Amino acid sequence: MIRQAKGKTPRRLPPKKASNSQKDPVGVYCRVRPLGAEDEECCIEVISNTTIQLHAPDGLKANRNGEFKETQYSFKKVFGIKTTQGELFEDVAKPLVEDIIHCKNGLLFTYGVTGSGKTHTMTGSPGQGGLLPRSLDMIFNSIGPYQAKRYVFKPDDKNGMEVQNQVDALLDRQKRDSQTTVPKTPTTRRIDPEFADMISPEEACKADGVDEDSSYSVFVSYIEIYNNYIYDLLEETPIDPIKPKWNVAGTPLRNNTEFIPPQSKILREDQNHNMYVAGCTEVEVKSTEEAFEVFWRGQKKRRIANTQLNRESSRSHSVFIIKLAQAPLDADGDNVLQDKNQVNVSQLCLVDLAGSERTSRTRAEGSRLREAGNINQSLMTLRTCIEVLRENQMCGTNKMVPYRDSKVTHLFKNYFDGEGKVRMVVCVNPKADDYEETLLVMRFAEMTQEVEVARPVDRPICGFAAGRRQRNQAFKEELTRRLEERGGPLDGESPTVLNQLLQSFPPLPPCEISGPNDDVTLPRLIEALEKRHKIRQMMIEEYNKTANMLKSVLQEQDSNLLSKENFIQEQRGKLGEKDKMLQNQKNEIDRLEKKSKMLEYKIDILQKTTNIYEEDKRSLQHELESREQRLQREMSEKRRMEARMQGIVTDSKLKWEKECERRVNAKQLEMQNKLWVKDEKLKQLKAIVTEGKTENRQPQRPSREKDKVPAKRSASPSPVPTGPPVRPLHRRSHSAGGERWVDHKPNTNVDLDTVLQPNLPNAIKVNAPSEKALSKCDKYVLTHQEVASDGEIQTKLIKGEVFKTRGGGQAVQFTDIETLKQENPVAASRKRRSSETGPDGEPKEGDWTDVETRCSVAVEMRAGSNLGPGYQHHGYPKRRKP
Ligand code: ADP
Ligand code: MG
């Protein structure tokens, strides 16, 4: 902001690095121009409205061995080849114009290689006006009715703005009008067809919120920076015939025309540390056409200078500065307030930079090479400044930014250091030839986007109640209407306020003097005039009183309003802060929401996975259980089977053991009998043979028999008789009833309390068998106890017959085993009951009850019977051998 700080303390805050902490990045836009020729190779593709993609041209790719890949660059916005000048203006320059109208500064520059469309973008051509004519047009469309009369605002020579009083301004205007050389404002006609139709009327636009209680004036300056020299393109060079016609570099001119080489200007810093070109022409313009005409004059001058001085226009920077001065109207709303401190000046700087290509690309030679080097130097400095700025901002460093190294950057210093909006349009030509240069442009542009510039703050310039202009207008209209109502105009005269007031006084008496002696008319006239004078005096007093009163009321209201406005301003600031905070929080919420959505989604997936796994687990568990059950079943089956098998095995083992024993015994007996029979026969034969010789000799037992006698006399009965009986086997007569038993009950036997006891009358009871007892008896019974397979005690009565052995001893031949068994009726329910041994029923009556029968059966069964000995006592008829 360039404004006055002279005199009284300004009511507003000083603009330099104000308390404003809000910053905005430099707005970088990219514009891609169409290819020149159809068959040219293209190396740029617009892939979205913010991104472009560069791809190396074919030749380059082959050379660099694929070193250059496709690269993408993003900008605030990308404008493709079909973008119109109007569309570009809407996005890029319109906000800057709005800013300048609201007292904020702006800088807009185009950057790019020569031929990329910088000038086309900034200036344009007839029918296709660029950003510059459009900006001017918008400014004038907005402030048109509120412009101050020419020369009311007057720039001083220190980059300030003064307000002239009405009279001085009028005098200046008259002076200007008298100078025929200065062209008048072209209100209706278009002077130069070159800038005709830059903007079509339907494209005209206007800023909102223009303060109608201010007065405005536009000033333009146009400078060129070439070889680090500043030239004023609007300077009116007086024709100086004495001055030699040399250019600044000391080279003589091409031809000897009246061309006067321009003098370079210097940069200065004003009181507010703003840079300005000292002594630079600032032309006040009142319309778009006039402004553009001034611009065109500068352009022409530039062209001529370039031709005359053999310069290349693409190597110079051109800067067009639009200054807008605005000041509030006075309390009446009639004139600009005569207070320098109330003047606000904002400016929009439109810069068409030189081509950014390196020197090697231009065919510059000699002094032109030097110049070109310098031109490159300014762009280099611009790059360095941007780099340092970025580094300072990003790393918090405080390096010195080398603005002073070139005029261009020095002029821009205020924008980067102070406040204002900075925008850059990067122009690119998509042709393959420009590829490498375009890459450099892109890198610079990307870097520039990272630089931030302080946002300009709002500063309303109002010091009085708003709506002054309108109120004044309305008042004037109302007054005119009322006066017209009162009297109407005099003949041929326009109704003036004076006329109307005169009419409101009492009429004058006739003032024609009838004669020299007429001393009535004059005194009457004097009296009437005095009366009028008195009335007038009274009216003036009344008027003054009312005016003063009104003034004080108005002032009071003004101060009220001012304080309210200040308050509103304060609140607005606070609101802005709150808004920012809110926005930040909103962003945070958005981010968290996105995150939570993501997490929810993940949870969902995990839930689903868990469900699947659980299902799997359940089914597997189910299977496991069923398998376990099956295993259990199989195991118990196996155990049962084992137990059964065990039983069967022990049973059959026992059975067969007994069977074997029995058979062996039987065989032994049989063999012994046979032996005995043979012995006997042999004896008889011997007796027959020897009868005659020794008739009285007693038959002798064979020696073999004699040897065995001691064995036969063994007291313990052996289950198998070892010695043959003395006489052939025959039973003692039972009929006699004198059957005697040796009842052998070993001491170890347990008394089982059985009901059924063997009844043996006159038996000899022994614990251990003795020869004595046996010799007296012919029957033997052993009561033997043992544990059966089911765990019950079973009693066996082993019966036998006592034989007298030849040796005079006793032998027992076992004939029968009777088994008595007790059973637990509950535990052994599945077991067969030994009905034969039960106390009731028919046990003693069957064939089996008879011991004799039993024994015969036993004997009969001996030969080849399959049945085990145990079965002999279980008298099932079917099991009996027929
Ligand atoms: P620079 O100023 O960057 O050297 P110019 O603006 O002079 O480039 O453009 C070179 C040529 O290309 C001009 O003839 C111009 O009309 C043309 N041109 C540039 N940009 C465009 C565009 N966007 N559309 C059509 N023509 C263009
Ligand atoms: Mg150009």
TrEMBL record:
<dbReference type="Pfam" id="PF00225">
    <property type="entry name" value="Kinesin"/>
</dbReference>
<dbReference type="GO" id="GO:0048731">
    <property type="term" value="P:system development"/>
</dbReference>
<dbReference type="GO" id="GO:0005524">
    <property type="term" value="F:ATP binding"/>
</dbReference>
<keyword id="KW-0493">Microtubule</keyword>
<dbReference type="GO" id="GO:0007018">
    <property type="term" value="P:microtubule-based movement"/>
</dbReference>
<dbReference type="InterPro" id="IPR027640">
    <property type="entry name" value="Kinesin-like_fam"/>
</dbReference>
<dbReference type="InterPro" id="IPR027417">
    <property type="entry name" value="P-loop_NTPase"/>
</dbReference>
<protein>
    <recommendedName>
        <fullName>Kinesin-like protein</fullName>
    </recommendedName>
</protein>
<dbReference type="GO" id="GO:0005874">
    <property type="term" value="C:microtubule"/>
</dbReference>
<keyword id="KW-0597">Phosphoprotein</keyword>
<keyword id="KW-0206">Cytoskeleton</keyword>
<dbReference type="GO" id="GO:0051256">
    <property type="term" value="P:mitotic spindle midzone assembly"/>
</dbReference>
<dbReference type="InterPro" id="IPR038105">
    <property type="entry name" value="Kif23_Arf-bd_sf"/>
</dbReference>
<feature type="region of interest" description="Disordered">
    <location>
        <begin position="689"/>
        <end position="754"/>
    </location>
</feature>
<keyword id="KW-0505">Motor protein</keyword>
<dbReference type="GO" id="GO:0051301">
    <property type="term" value="P:cell division"/>
</dbReference>
<feature type="compositionally biased region" description="Pro residues">
    <location>
        <begin position="718"/>
        <end position="727"/>
    </location>
</feature>
<feature type="compositionally biased region" description="Basic and acidic residues">
    <location>
        <begin position="692"/>
        <end position="710"/>
    </location>
</feature>
<dbReference type="InterPro" id="IPR001752">
    <property type="entry name" value="Kinesin_motor_dom"/>
</dbReference>
<dbReference type="GO" id="GO:0008017">
    <property type="term" value="F:microtubule binding"/>
</dbReference>
<dbReference type="GO" id="GO:0005871">
    <property type="term" value="C:kinesin complex"/>
</dbReference>
<feature type="binding site">
    <location>
        <begin position="112"/>
        <end position="119"/>
    </location>
    <ligand>
        <name>ATP</name>
    </ligand>
</feature>
<dbReference type="GO" id="GO:0005819">
    <property type="term" value="C:spindle"/>
</dbReference>
<keyword id="KW-0067">ATP-binding</keyword>
<dbReference type="InterPro" id="IPR019821">
    <property type="entry name" value="Kinesin_motor_CS"/>
</dbReference>
<dbReference type="GO" id="GO:0090543">
    <property type="term" value="C:Flemming body"/>
</dbReference>
<feature type="region of interest" description="Disordered">
    <location>
        <begin position="823"/>
        <end position="882"/>
    </location>
</feature>
<dbReference type="Pfam" id="PF16540">
    <property type="entry name" value="MKLP1_Arf_bdg"/>
</dbReference>
<keyword id="KW-0539">Nucleus</keyword>
<keyword id="KW-1017">Isopeptide bond</keyword>
<feature type="compositionally biased region" description="Basic residues">
    <location>
        <begin position="1"/>
        <end position="15"/>
    </location>
</feature>
<dbReference type="InterPro" id="IPR032384">
    <property type="entry name" value="Kif23_Arf-bd"/>
</dbReference>
<dbReference type="GO" id="GO:0005634">
    <property type="term" value="C:nucleus"/>
</dbReference>
<feature type="domain" description="Kinesin motor">
    <location>
        <begin position="25"/>
        <end position="451"/>
    </location>
</feature>
<feature type="compositionally biased region" description="Basic and acidic residues">
    <location>
        <begin position="841"/>
        <end position="853"/>
    </location>
</feature>
<keyword id="KW-0547">Nucleotide-binding</keyword>
<feature type="region of interest" description="Disordered">
    <location>
        <begin position="1"/>
        <end position="23"/>
    </location>
</feature>
<comment type="subunit">
    <text>Heterotetramer of two molecules each of RACGAP1 and KIF23. Found in the centralspindlin complex. Interacts with RACGAP1; the interaction is direct. Interacts with ECT2 and PRC1. Interacts with ANXA11 during cytokinesis. Interacts with BIRC6/bruce and USP8/UBPY. Interacts with ARF6, forming heterodimers and heterotetramers.</text>
</comment>
<dbReference type="InterPro" id="IPR036961">
    <property type="entry name" value="Kinesin_motor_dom_sf"/>
</dbReference>
<keyword id="KW-0131">Cell cycle</keyword>
<dbReference type="GO" id="GO:0003777">
    <property type="term" value="F:microtubule motor activity"/>
</dbReference>
<feature type="coiled-coil region">
    <location>
        <begin position="540"/>
        <end position="644"/>
    </location>
</feature>
